[in-house]
Automatic annotation (TrEMBL):
Biased composition (Basic and acidic residues): 314-332
Species assigned in the record: Penicillium bovifimosum
Subcellular location: Mitochondrion
Similarity comment: family membership: Belongs to the CIA30 family.
Boundaries of every NADH:ubiquinone oxidoreductase intermediate-associated protein domain copy: 44-172, 222-274
The protein, known as: NADH:ubiquinone oxidoreductase intermediate-associated protein 30 domain-containing protein
Keyword Chaperone: yes
Length: 345
């Protein structure tokens, strides 16, 4: 494993003061009495220290050949490009000379533990919010958002596919075996998804995912930046890549890490830019100016539920019949076992 340079976390008293200040602002604004309309920033990659405070993971830890880096990229005012993190590297499915390793081809990053404050471990409390928002510039590969909470089972991770306007569905021919992509893996589709493919992990974005309504399908003439809202209630509980039953919702009051992984096992380079990750109830006035400036014609509209009566959405139902829609869903079961125990290291 080749982690990025670790950040010396801010001092204990500074973290405590920052958290007290945040809670005081919430109390002063009586946000606990109604649905918050202001964003709650979790990871702001305009700050270089946030980038340094993350760790990268790849199959090189087990002898594989994939690489992963997370670098800070400064702003380019001429193109309205903000400072951001660049998650890049290359995926290789080549196996090492180690009979114990049966699968490679993954890379990921996440923030490191946030440390302690006066009342114990420091977590993000996103309970008042409906969506996890990510402002990204994607190369179209099938990334997965990973959220880890303080849970009974420490290795549980809640996952959701990172859908984008440039999301590419793997093209297949009619002569392909529906599960041929699993031939090099010990995991079968039935093992990964015993109750059917969850909607949040399929190749087609579920209706609950909020994306740009722009009719453009390329980055030509635009900045390429876009914001995607993923409902917290749609995240799928997994453990070592397997969907776990019974499904349980995110423990939103105790989120300890957020990251993005690439486990599609498609060989070649990848390049994902991330500006910011935050919790929200929709694009509010506080977010709209920045959203329009950075994303341009791909900007989400103002008021996606913030003022129009947001209500919590139900858990996405799994896709029961995978085999009836082979071309749509094939390939989406790949790679979800990649992160394994590295997430906790």
């Amino acid at each position: 494993m080749f982690p990025t340079r670790r950040l010396a976390q801010g001092g204990f008293f500074k973290r405590s003061a920052d958290e007290f200040g945040r809670l005081s602002r919430i109390a002063w604004n009586t946000e606990t009495l109604h649905t918050p309309t202001k964003p709650y920033t979790l990871l702001n990659f305009e700050d270089e220290e946030t980038v340094k405070g993350c760790k990268t993971m790849a199959d090189r830890a087990v002898g594989g050949f994939s690489t992963a880096s997370l670098d800070y990229e400064p702003a380019e005012p001429s193109s309205n490009t903000p400072s951001h993190a660049r998650f890049h590297g290359s995926i290789s499915t080549k196996l090492p000379d180690n009979w114990r390793v049966e699968r490679t081809g993954y890379a990921a990053f996440r923030n490191q533990d946030r440390g302690y404050w006066l009342f114990g471990k420091l977590f993000w409390d996103v309970d008042p919010y409906a969506y996890l928002a990510l402002r990204i510039k994607s190369d179209g590969r099938r990334y997965t958002v990973n959220v880890q909470t303080e849970a009974v089972v420490e290795t549980d991770i809640h996952q959701h596919r990172l859908y984008t306007r440039h999301h590419r569905v793997r093209e297949v021919t009619s002569s392909d075996d529906a599960y041929s992509f699993q031939a090099d893996s010990p995991d079968s589709v039935d093992e990964l998804y015993p109750n059917g493919l969850p909607a949040a992990l399929s190749d087609v974005p579920p209706e609950s995912t909020i994306m740009s309504t722009s009719t453009s399908t390329t980055t030509s003439g635009s900045s390429g930046w876009e914001t995607v809202l993923l409902p917290f209630n749609s995240f799928v509980r997994t453990n070592h890549g397997f969907v776990i039953e019974p499904q349980t919702s995110l423990t939103r009051q105790r989120v300890k890490s957020i990251g993005i992984g690439l486990t599609d096992r498609v060989e070649g380079p990848f390049d994902l830019r991330i500006h910011k990750i935050w919790a929200t109830n929709g694009i509010s006035e506080a977010e709209f100016e920045e959203e329009r400036r950075i994303c341009g014609e791909n900007a989400l509209p103002l008021d996606e539920g913030v003022q129009s009566g947001w209500t919590d959405m139900p858990q996405e139902k799994p896709v029961k019949e995978i085999k009836q829609n082979k071309q749509q869903d094939r390939g989406s079961a790949k790679g979800l076992k990649g992160l394994k125990g590295e997430w906790e290291e």
